Amino acid sequence: MMTKKEAAAEIRAAKVRLGLTWAGLAEAVGRPVSWTTAALLGQHPMSKDEAEAAAEVLELGPEVVVALQLQPMRGALETVVPTDPTIYRFYEVLQVYGPTIKELIHEQFGDGIMSAINFRLDVRREADPAGDRVVVTLDGKFLPYQW
Amino acid sequence: MMTKKEAAAEIRAAKVRLGLTWAGLAEAVGRPVSWTTAALLGQHPMSKDEAEAAAEVLELGPEVVVALQLQPMRGALETVVPTDPTIYRFYEVLQVYGPTIKELIHEQFGDGIMSAINFRLDVRREADPAGDRVVVTLDGKFLPYQW
Amino acid sequence: MMTKKEAAAEIRAAKVRLGLTWAGLAEAVGRPVSWTTAALLGQHPMSKDEAEAAAEVLELGPEVVVALQLQPMRGALETVVPTDPTIYRFYEVLQVYGPTIKELIHEQFGDGIMSAINFRLDVRREADPAGDRVVVTLDGKFLPYQW
Amino acid sequence: MMTKKEAAAEIRAAKVRLGLTWAGLAEAVGRPVSWTTAALLGQHPMSKDEAEAAAEVLELGPEVVVALQLQPMRGALETVVPTDPTIYRFYEVLQVYGPTIKELIHEQFGDGIMSAINFRLDVRREADPAGDRVVVTLDGKFLPYQW
Amino acid sequence: MMTKKEAAAEIRAAKVRLGLTWAGLAEAVGRPVSWTTAALLGQHPMSKDEAEAAAEVLELGPEVVVALQLQPMRGALETVVPTDPTIYRFYEVLQVYGPTIKELIHEQFGDGIMSAINFRLDVRREADPAGDRVVVTLDGKFLPYQW
Amino acid sequence: MMTKKEAAAEIRAAKVRLGLTWAGLAEAVGRPVSWTTAALLGQHPMSKDEAEAAAEVLELGPEVVVALQLQPMRGALETVVPTDPTIYRFYEVLQVYGPTIKELIHEQFGDGIMSAINFRLDVRREADPAGDRVVVTLDGKFLPYQW
Amino acid sequence: MMTKKEAAAEIRAAKVRLGLTWAGLAEAVGRPVSWTTAALLGQHPMSKDEAEAAAEVLELGPEVVVALQLQPMRGALETVVPTDPTIYRFYEVLQVYGPTIKELIHEQFGDGIMSAINFRLDVRREADPAGDRVVVTLDGKFLPYQW
Amino acid sequence: MMTKKEAAAEIRAAKVRLGLTWAGLAEAVGRPVSWTTAALLGQHPMSKDEAEAAAEVLELGPEVVVALQLQPMRGALETVVPTDPTIYRFYEVLQVYGPTIKELIHEQFGDGIMSAINFRLDVRREADPAGDRVVVTLDGKFLPYQW
Amino acid sequence: MMTKKEAAAEIRAAKVRLGLTWAGLAEAVGRPVSWTTAALLGQHPMSKDEAEAAAEVLELGPEVVVALQLQPMRGALETVVPTDPTIYRFYEVLQVYGPTIKELIHEQFGDGIMSAINFRLDVRREADPAGDRVVVTLDGKFLPYQW
Amino acid sequence: MMTKKEAAAEIRAAKVRLGLTWAGLAEAVGRPVSWTTAALLGQHPMSKDEAEAAAEVLELGPEVVVALQLQPMRGALETVVPTDPTIYRFYEVLQVYGPTIKELIHEQFGDGIMSAINFRLDVRREADPAGDRVVVTLDGKFLPYQW
């Protein structure tokens, strides 16, 4: 059986080989680009139709179609603290602003959390004369502590 | 000398005692609420005026005023992986979506990172009939790898 | 300011000194015993009334009343893997049965998790001729992955 | 020799390929579903009959039959703290409620532990108008500290 | 409240000051020497009578009597791998012989464990012309895996 | 070259295939059962005669004979804290009773250690009406600190 | 697909086999030697032209050309603290002088950091009668904390 | 006795209180600014004269004078990986460029290291129209591996 | 009770205050200098006479005399890998030459270890025109593996 | 390309197969035995002549000759704290005597370190009627802290 991790490696290679984009793959799959990228990288299971649509564009075989449908064992960082600078900055944001985010959630909502399950993510480019900006929006349902 | 950490503890206590809010403190200081919260929790240095404005509303003394102006040694998590559920969910987002964010930044901008220094953060409540949502926006300047 | 951890230590001491039980404290507070124990050990914030009811029975002062109302920074294990045998057995259950629980949740519900926020816990004694049994029930709302 | 881990991978693949369920496999094996799932994932040794029954339904060969009978080296988490959200929530329960569970066991039974060896586990779906619930029951014999 | 750890420090100091032995303390308490030492070091709760008997011989006050009766949070090593050579050798035994012990338990008893709860320990000196020997006996009830 | 670890895997497989026991293998080798098990699991080097005797009974080839004679790089636990419950209980004994063992060695012998090199180990079953017991004896020469 | 790590291994081997130098490779690629070395070791993506120029001199095939163009997952140390003495000395510099560097950056620039993205590195030999010196220059744009 | 760490805290406080700079302190002490900062932060021992000169400008007492002369136990990071962003960037440089630096040292010097003992450090501001730059120079004697 | 660690701090301070040397202290105590230094730093228990001799020269009181006689809990490094460069170099020797030392011990002695208990240590200065040398001799009894 | 680690495994196997000794290999190579052993285990690069001399005696091919000449990435312990008892004892020496060695180096030489680069190592057997001794000499140039 091909694992989801092996499928992700095949997908990255095919994407470079064929000059595809995540945005284009998302369109082919018919889902938002962040969700599609996460799914193709092995963090969400796809439906059979989604998997087949992706595999067709990527010119990959039935093993990949099966792997994309498997229920994932999630968790994509290879080390507890990420070493890649692009990913590390988000860990740094957590180090510097984690307690701030916690305080502001509690002030606005009371005791509870932002769901990471009923959740969507957006990454977009915002033009700015002082240098364009990366704007990442984390948008999750509030879940109050409830006995 | 009072440390920034001790000052933050005093501030939390005074805030509860006086029934203040982070939003109210931000208004008194004249800065955005996320920045002000982070600064009062010891992650940013305040100017003398900002520190005095905060201390006055919080009814705290000159030691706190000095502490708030000190250059911080940043990093607010007490463990490498946070245990508090409200903060942990953001670490989980990084575990599940970290490589997705990396791929999308590279697709939209090329090789580089979102700055965590030239950076602003917003936490807001978005009404939703299926349950209100926590929307956290991370907004940093794109920095291309540049030799 | 008294921290929630210091308040918990005071509470444990008073409980032994006065010969109280968690069940009795829960009755005084008017909440389930598991919730009340967790709250008195510093893992949930109490309302002012609950805190005052607890402090009165425990013969403790106003500092404890304030501490019990504070929003907690949750996470009660002092080491990543607990060393106390009574607590360790639950970590062992996770080591041996974690993937089993995951498979069964996915088989019965699809992709998602058991909420640890919209959640209740029960610990009870079940008589058994072959030796009484500890029955711990973890009961959380199912949260489907939902974009 | 095929390891128990390799056998588990074969079993997961066959289960998806043939559209089987853990419940169905448990019926074929004639043991409770939680026990059977744990055994097929490599955490319990099966008897020869159980292993053969499982292998037949899964259409797998004699190597798997042997592997399922081996005495396991138990412990299924690949990291000290699990990263998969479905499993992590149980670790979080331990972080938030571990000391509560300990206190309540001691209050009801005295000094001792819930056995994780003389132990059974149940995962079931409970219908609830506010959203169905995952109910996990941990049921182990009480073992008093006894010199 | 005096913690069990603080009580243990007081006890060690008093023992040196008064020239007492663990064997003598065990006799005063009326329990086996290994159990008594573990209890005085904070790893077992004592009954009121035992605690008072120990405190009297050690010439310590009522705070110690209370501390000795408290339910312990067990786990006495300050680091995951012990650095003290006398204790480390036992960790080394586990590194070199752990799987051997596991194999021999399974061969003699089937699938299960030696209980560390229904358990007793003995440390004794055995005369030997080639150099006296430390003989440590670990004696626990066998617990079979039992669903 | 076959490593000692690969040889151990071959040996476990052959032992199951041929229905042998560690006790029987020890008899064939002519050494105590604990020593023989440890050696066959790769923690002690065997003499040529011992290795050949073991390989003959196990019906294994000359590569195994060589591997069994190699000087081992000792240390058999795959994680710093063992996760297998049968082995973990001995780590727990060290957590709960480590300082007790240290105190009793020093009381009976003075400053020094139990050797883990000039050392023998025994695991035996002791019948007990309340449930048979696992009795593990650790028996090492006392080594005084000596400059 | 050949990974960047596998490509780096091929490159090191070819470099030794053909007696090439990093300086020579940098000249062939037309980029600074530090940048070129980092890119060939898998820490920067190359353009198609650069990758082809490098592969030609190294007499390596098209798989290497593709690998060199891939976006890297950066982070080259195999352990959190490096063990190789040549690399460790730089970690030691950070242990001994890290806070000094921080203080001096803040004194000369205010609150902010040296960018590791808009950054260049130089390693050169400086003749010195008391023994030649390794001079490593880290040169990054100052980024002020800016909301 | 005042530790070097406590002295460093006193020094930082006095420096803020009196509006001094590290550059000014270095001048008073008569040593380079990087060395002086490191020494005042507790990473180098000062001579009696240097310590007295520093203490005089800082208006601190004889305890600080003694502490500054003590031989340090070096190592200033509180965590294995630094969390403060200003310091972290240098760890990131090591993650991304560590093997590059190693290769270039070996190419220019042969097998050996840059000394971190016979070593000097400089941090300076370099004006740049595209944004001023932080230039950190690490300058250590080359030490060849020599038996 | 004064701990051995607190006594060591007092001793270091007194040694600096009185201008004593470890060599001089060893002479006063009548034991080798390495042993005496280790004992005064808390790693060996002293006899009453030795402790009194040391305390007299150091002009310290009876609390120190008692502390020096206590049985130590050994292990003097504050982190698993030492950060102080003078101590780290010995860890580096172990990283680079550990397996070499192991091979040579086994070649010269057979299977066994150098005792760290029946052990003595010497640190001396050896004049050398190319720069004086630190010569550290580790001298321990060979202990063969012996069942 | 054969790595130095793979070459080391080949060398160990050949050494056993041909009944060679490290001492004999050192003679063939014409270098000290400790250096030669370290080099053959992959911790030092050999010259072409040395590599060929070693390979000839070991009856190994040209791939090994190349591997032995490669610049090593040093660091031979597979875990941060070694588990093999023969190697662990040297880590224990560091735990017990590390600060003693540091104090004595500083007393005899001033502030600085023993070089682990300009360094030689000797392991020899010293006859002793009370049991032969392992004498390990670490001999490195003193390097004073020098700005």
From TrEMBL, chains A, B, C, D, E, F, G, H, I, J:
<dbReference type="InterPro" id="IPR008076">
    <property type="entry name" value="Cyanase"/>
</dbReference>
<dbReference type="InterPro" id="IPR036581">
    <property type="entry name" value="Cyanate_lyase_C_sf"/>
</dbReference>
<comment type="function">
    <text>Catalyzes the reaction of cyanate with bicarbonate to produce ammonia and carbon dioxide.</text>
</comment>
<dbReference type="InterPro" id="IPR048564">
    <property type="entry name" value="CYNS_N"/>
</dbReference>
<protein>
    <recommendedName>
        <fullName>Cyanate hydratase</fullName>
        <ecNumber>4.2.1.104</ecNumber>
    </recommendedName>
</protein>
<dbReference type="InterPro" id="IPR010982">
    <property type="entry name" value="Lambda_DNA-bd_dom_sf"/>
</dbReference>
<feature type="active site">
    <location>
        <position position="89"/>
    </location>
</feature>
<comment type="similarity">
    <text>Belongs to the cyanase family.</text>
</comment>
<feature type="domain" description="Cyanate lyase C-terminal">
    <location>
        <begin position="76"/>
        <end position="147"/>
    </location>
</feature>
<dbReference type="GO" id="GO:0008824">
    <property type="term" value="F:cyanate hydratase activity"/>
</dbReference>
<dbReference type="Pfam" id="PF02560">
    <property type="entry name" value="Cyanate_lyase"/>
</dbReference>
<dbReference type="GO" id="GO:0003677">
    <property type="term" value="F:DNA binding"/>
</dbReference>
<feature type="active site">
    <location>
        <position position="115"/>
    </location>
</feature>
<dbReference type="InterPro" id="IPR003712">
    <property type="entry name" value="Cyanate_lyase_C"/>
</dbReference>
<keyword id="KW-0456">Lyase</keyword>
<feature type="active site">
    <location>
        <position position="92"/>
    </location>
</feature>
<dbReference type="Pfam" id="PF21291">
    <property type="entry name" value="CYNS_N"/>
</dbReference>
